[in-house]
Amino acid sequence: MKYIYGPVKSRRLGLSLGISLVPYKMCNLDCIYCQLGPTAKRTLKRKQYIKIKDIISELSEFINSADFKNMNIDYISLSGTGEPLLNSKIDVLIDEIKKLSTIPIALITNASLFKEKRIRDSILGVDLIMPSLDAIDNETFKAIDRPAKGLCIEDIIKGLVNLRNEFGGKIFLEIMIVKGVNDNLSYFQEFKHVIARIDPDKVHLNVPKRHTSEAGVSVPDREVLKKICKILGDKCEII
Ligand code: SF4
Protein backbone atom coordinates (compact mmCIF):
# COMPACT_ATOMS: atom_id res chain seq x y z
CA MET A 1 0.00 0.00 0.00
CA LYS A 2 1.30 3.46 -0.85
CA TYR A 3 -0.86 5.79 1.17
CA ILE A 4 -2.37 3.58 3.86
CA TYR A 5 -0.19 2.17 6.63
CA GLY A 6 -0.68 0.02 9.69
CA PRO A 7 -2.85 -0.54 11.53
CA VAL A 8 -0.49 0.40 14.32
CA LYS A 9 -1.07 0.19 18.05
CA SER A 10 -0.80 3.69 19.47
CA ARG A 11 -0.88 4.87 23.07
CA ARG A 12 -3.21 7.69 22.22
CA LEU A 13 -5.49 6.13 19.61
CA GLY A 14 -5.58 2.39 20.24
CA LEU A 15 -5.44 0.50 16.93
CA SER A 16 -5.06 3.12 14.25
CA LEU A 17 -5.03 2.85 10.47
CA GLY A 18 -2.91 5.69 9.09
CA ILE A 19 -3.33 7.65 5.88
CA SER A 20 -0.59 9.81 4.35
CA LEU A 21 -1.93 12.81 2.48
CA VAL A 22 1.37 14.35 1.40
CA PRO A 23 4.68 12.99 0.05
CA TYR A 24 7.49 12.13 2.45
CA LYS A 25 8.40 15.00 4.76
CA MET A 26 6.27 17.64 3.05
CA CYS A 27 5.94 20.02 5.97
CA ASN A 28 5.89 23.68 6.96
CA LEU A 29 7.92 23.03 10.11
CA ASP A 30 11.29 21.40 10.69
CA CYS A 31 11.00 20.25 14.29
CA ILE A 32 14.26 19.39 15.98
CA TYR A 33 12.72 16.18 17.33
CA CYS A 34 11.06 15.03 14.08
CA GLN A 35 11.19 11.26 13.74
CA LEU A 36 11.22 11.59 9.94
CA GLY A 37 14.48 13.54 9.75
CA PRO A 38 15.04 17.08 8.43
CA THR A 39 12.52 18.92 6.25
CA ALA A 40 14.36 19.54 2.98
CA LYS A 41 12.16 22.46 1.99
CA ARG A 42 9.53 23.94 4.28
CA THR A 43 6.45 24.96 2.37
CA LEU A 44 3.18 26.75 3.03
CA LYS A 45 1.80 25.85 -0.39
CA ARG A 46 -1.36 23.76 -0.23
CA LYS A 47 -2.34 21.56 -3.10
CA GLN A 48 -3.60 18.09 -3.84
CA TYR A 49 -0.13 16.56 -3.41
CA ILE A 50 -1.65 13.08 -3.43
CA LYS A 51 -4.85 12.54 -5.39
CA ILE A 52 -7.78 11.81 -3.09
CA LYS A 53 -9.20 9.29 -5.56
CA ASP A 54 -5.97 7.27 -5.31
CA ILE A 55 -6.11 7.25 -1.50
CA ILE A 56 -9.78 6.27 -1.53
CA SER A 57 -9.21 3.51 -4.03
CA GLU A 58 -6.50 2.03 -1.79
CA LEU A 59 -8.61 2.45 1.35
CA SER A 60 -11.64 0.89 -0.28
CA GLU A 61 -9.63 -2.14 -1.36
CA PHE A 62 -8.25 -2.52 2.17
CA ILE A 63 -11.66 -2.17 3.82
CA ASN A 64 -13.05 -4.88 1.54
CA SER A 65 -10.18 -7.29 2.21
CA ALA A 66 -10.46 -10.40 4.39
CA ASP A 67 -7.67 -9.03 6.64
CA PHE A 68 -9.69 -5.96 7.51
CA LYS A 69 -12.71 -7.98 8.64
CA ASN A 70 -10.64 -9.49 11.49
CA MET A 71 -9.33 -6.14 12.71
CA ASN A 72 -10.95 -3.95 15.29
CA ILE A 73 -9.65 -0.61 14.20
CA ASP A 74 -10.32 2.24 16.65
CA TYR A 75 -9.42 5.16 14.39
CA ILE A 76 -8.56 6.04 10.83
CA SER A 77 -5.88 8.67 11.35
CA LEU A 78 -4.94 11.42 8.91
CA SER A 79 -1.27 11.97 9.59
CA GLY A 80 1.57 10.21 7.82
CA THR A 81 4.90 11.52 6.71
CA GLY A 82 4.28 15.26 6.76
CA GLU A 83 1.63 17.86 7.56
CA PRO A 84 -1.77 16.55 6.37
CA LEU A 85 -3.38 20.00 6.15
CA LEU A 86 -1.05 20.83 3.27
CA ASN A 87 -3.27 18.60 1.11
CA SER A 88 -5.86 21.11 -0.11
CA LYS A 89 -8.52 18.42 -0.66
CA ILE A 90 -8.54 17.03 2.86
CA ASP A 91 -12.26 17.90 3.13
CA VAL A 92 -13.07 15.69 0.15
CA LEU A 93 -11.03 12.86 1.67
CA ILE A 94 -12.92 13.11 4.98
CA ASP A 95 -16.28 12.99 3.16
CA GLU A 96 -15.21 9.99 1.08
CA ILE A 97 -13.89 8.07 4.10
CA LYS A 98 -17.24 8.55 5.81
CA LYS A 99 -19.01 7.01 2.84
CA LEU A 100 -16.81 3.91 3.15
CA SER A 101 -16.71 3.38 6.90
CA THR A 102 -18.11 4.35 10.29
CA ILE A 103 -14.72 4.14 12.01
CA PRO A 104 -13.98 7.45 13.78
CA ILE A 105 -11.48 9.71 12.04
CA ALA A 106 -8.59 11.40 13.87
CA LEU A 107 -6.50 14.25 12.49
CA ILE A 108 -2.91 14.60 13.70
CA THR A 109 -1.59 18.03 12.79
CA ASN A 110 1.00 20.60 13.78
CA ALA A 111 -1.86 23.18 13.93
CA SER A 112 0.12 25.78 12.03
CA LEU A 113 -2.56 26.37 9.38
CA PHE A 114 -5.55 26.76 11.69
CA LYS A 115 -5.28 30.52 11.40
CA GLU A 116 -7.44 30.32 8.25
CA LYS A 117 -11.13 29.71 8.79
CA ARG A 118 -11.58 27.90 5.49
CA ILE A 119 -8.91 25.40 6.56
CA ARG A 120 -10.55 24.92 9.95
CA ASP A 121 -13.90 24.45 8.19
CA SER A 122 -12.41 21.80 5.93
CA ILE A 123 -11.73 19.39 8.78
CA LEU A 124 -14.82 19.81 10.97
CA GLY A 125 -16.02 16.37 9.82
CA VAL A 126 -13.40 14.44 11.83
CA ASP A 127 -14.10 13.05 15.30
CA LEU A 128 -10.85 13.85 17.07
CA ILE A 129 -8.16 16.47 16.42
CA MET A 130 -4.70 16.02 17.89
CA PRO A 131 -2.86 19.31 17.33
CA SER A 132 0.60 20.01 18.66
CA LEU A 133 1.69 23.19 20.37
CA ASP A 134 5.26 23.21 21.66
CA ALA A 135 5.65 26.92 22.41
CA ILE A 136 3.70 30.05 23.29
CA ASP A 137 6.28 32.61 22.12
CA ASN A 138 8.01 33.00 18.78
CA GLU A 139 11.53 32.61 20.07
CA THR A 140 10.84 29.17 21.52
CA PHE A 141 8.66 28.28 18.52
CA LYS A 142 11.59 29.00 16.20
CA ALA A 143 14.02 27.08 18.39
CA ILE A 144 11.98 23.90 18.62
CA ASP A 145 9.77 23.80 15.50
CA ARG A 146 11.77 25.94 13.03
CA PRO A 147 8.69 27.16 11.11
CA ALA A 148 8.47 28.29 7.50
CA LYS A 149 8.68 32.04 7.07
CA GLY A 150 5.31 33.67 7.70
CA LEU A 151 4.12 31.41 10.53
CA CYS A 152 3.77 32.99 13.93
CA ILE A 153 2.74 31.48 17.21
CA GLU A 154 0.07 34.06 18.10
CA ASP A 155 -1.84 33.17 14.90
CA ILE A 156 -1.58 29.47 15.68
CA ILE A 157 -2.89 29.96 19.22
CA LYS A 158 -5.78 32.11 17.95
CA GLY A 159 -6.52 29.44 15.34
CA LEU A 160 -6.71 26.78 18.04
CA VAL A 161 -9.01 28.95 20.19
CA ASN A 162 -11.31 29.47 17.20
CA LEU A 163 -11.19 25.79 16.35
CA ARG A 164 -12.37 24.94 19.85
CA ASN A 165 -15.39 27.18 19.38
CA GLU A 166 -16.25 25.74 15.98
CA PHE A 167 -15.47 22.03 16.37
CA GLY A 168 -17.85 19.70 18.23
CA GLY A 169 -15.48 16.73 18.57
CA LYS A 170 -12.62 16.09 20.95
CA ILE A 171 -9.28 17.91 20.95
CA PHE A 172 -6.18 16.30 22.48
CA LEU A 173 -3.38 18.86 22.55
CA GLU A 174 0.15 17.50 22.41
CA ILE A 175 3.19 19.32 23.78
CA MET A 176 6.64 17.95 22.99
CA ILE A 177 8.99 18.85 25.82
CA VAL A 178 12.67 19.23 24.96
CA LYS A 179 15.23 19.61 27.74
CA GLY A 180 16.73 23.09 27.87
CA VAL A 181 14.35 24.46 25.21
CA ASN A 182 10.81 24.46 26.61
CA ASP A 183 11.04 22.62 29.93
CA ASN A 184 11.22 25.63 32.22
CA LEU A 185 8.56 25.44 34.93
CA SER A 186 7.87 29.18 34.90
CA TYR A 187 7.20 28.90 31.15
CA PHE A 188 4.40 26.47 31.92
CA GLN A 189 2.85 28.90 34.42
CA GLU A 190 2.21 31.04 31.31
CA PHE A 191 1.44 28.06 29.08
CA LYS A 192 -1.42 26.99 31.31
CA HIS A 193 -3.27 30.26 30.59
CA VAL A 194 -2.95 29.65 26.85
CA ILE A 195 -4.23 26.11 27.32
CA ALA A 196 -7.19 27.44 29.30
CA ARG A 197 -8.08 29.61 26.28
CA ILE A 198 -7.82 26.65 23.88
CA ASP A 199 -9.75 24.41 26.29
CA PRO A 200 -8.71 21.01 24.88
CA ASP A 201 -10.27 17.81 26.23
CA LYS A 202 -6.83 16.47 27.11
CA VAL A 203 -3.24 17.67 27.17
CA HIS A 204 -0.57 15.10 26.32
CA LEU A 205 3.04 15.70 27.29
CA ASN A 206 5.44 13.86 25.03
CA VAL A 207 9.23 13.64 24.83
CA PRO A 208 11.58 13.26 21.85
CA LYS A 209 12.62 9.78 20.75
CA ARG A 210 16.35 9.62 21.42
CA HIS A 211 17.23 7.57 18.35
CA THR A 212 15.45 9.79 15.79
CA SER A 213 15.94 13.30 17.15
CA GLU A 214 18.79 15.58 16.08
CA ALA A 215 22.05 15.50 17.99
CA GLY A 216 21.82 17.61 21.13
CA VAL A 217 18.06 17.14 21.55
CA SER A 218 17.54 15.76 25.05
CA VAL A 219 14.72 14.28 27.02
CA PRO A 220 13.76 16.17 30.19
CA ASP A 221 13.96 14.49 33.57
CA ARG A 222 10.85 12.57 34.58
CA GLU A 223 10.51 14.71 37.71
CA VAL A 224 10.39 17.86 35.57
CA LEU A 225 7.66 16.32 33.41
CA LYS A 226 5.64 15.45 36.49
CA LYS A 227 5.93 19.03 37.76
CA ILE A 228 4.83 20.43 34.37
CA CYS A 229 1.91 18.02 34.38
CA LYS A 230 0.90 19.21 37.83
CA ILE A 231 1.03 22.85 36.72
CA LEU A 232 -1.19 22.08 33.70
CA GLY A 233 -3.80 20.36 35.84
CA ASP A 234 -6.25 17.46 35.61
CA LYS A 235 -6.48 17.25 31.84
CA CYS A 236 -2.76 16.69 31.50
CA GLU A 237 -1.02 13.32 31.22
CA ILE A 238 2.46 12.16 30.29
CA ILE A 239 2.30 9.77 27.37
S1 SF4 B 1 5.32 18.95 12.19
FE1 SF4 B 1 5.53 16.72 12.34
S2 SF4 B 1 6.29 16.08 10.32
FE2 SF4 B 1 6.57 18.30 10.44
S3 SF4 B 1 8.70 18.55 11.15
FE3 SF4 B 1 7.37 18.60 12.97
S4 SF4 B 1 7.29 16.50 13.73
FE4 SF4 B 1 8.09 16.43 11.61
From TrEMBL:
Annotated keywords: 4Fe-4S, Iron, Iron-sulfur, Metal-binding, S-adenosyl-L-methionine
Residues covered by the Radical SAM core domain: 9-239
PROSITE patterns for the chain: RADICAL_SAM (PS51918)
Classification of source organism: Bacteria, Pseudomonadati, Candidatus Omnitrophota, Candidatus Ghiorseimicrobium
Superkingdom of the organism of origin: Bacteria
One Pfam family in the UniProt entry: Radical_SAM
CDD domains (UniProt xref): Radical_SAM
InterPro entries recorded: Aldolase_TIM (IPR013785), GTPase_Obg (IPR040084), rSAM (IPR007197), rSAM_sf (IPR058240)
Protein name: Radical SAM protein
Cofactor requirements of the protein: [4Fe-4S] cluster
GO molecular function: 4 iron, 4 sulfur cluster binding; catalytic activity; metal ion binding
